[in-house]
Amino acid sequence: MDQADISDDEHYEAEKAREAFQTLCDTDRVSLGRIARILAARENLASADELISEAYVRTVSGTRRWKRSQSFVQFFAGVMKSLASDASFLPDSRKVEKIAGGYSALAGDQVLDVEAADNTLELQQKALVEEMYDHLDRHFEGDEEMQMLLMGLQEGLRGEELEGTIGVDTKRLAALRTRFKRQVDKFIAAYRAREGQSHG
Question: Does the model's pTM come out above 0.85?
């Protein structure tokens, strides 16, 4: 039997996922587009469209299966996120950058930006925010709701837009925000302790 035809109590069949993608409402399409842009920028992928297209292929082929416990937006965002960090999916130029390290780990046109900034406070703050989100991403690995919250916050989503993207109500969003704030506070405390030791 073709994997795409398999259905069980835990997952939807691939055809159901294909239908869900094709009938996405405008709000959900916008949400997935935003998430794709975040992921593409974070991993230096060719484009957000490339990421969406590949996630769609994995979905309709049955390679990635939609759990019944997830909303379709949560599921599809998770597929894109795993693809974005998949070394085999990265464009060849990005693979070279990852191997080379140092300045070569930046896209060519980004190096000038870094040199122009010359380690200003703004650059330091940006680096700290990126470090914080990397830390939170690792801390909440496997927690789909929190992963969606992180991506939504990085895109600047608030209120109903954020609720719709994650697939939760206002009360649940408040609980997720509390968990987010708790971890941010821990990260900041650890950072200050580290900075205090380095200047002590």
Answer: no
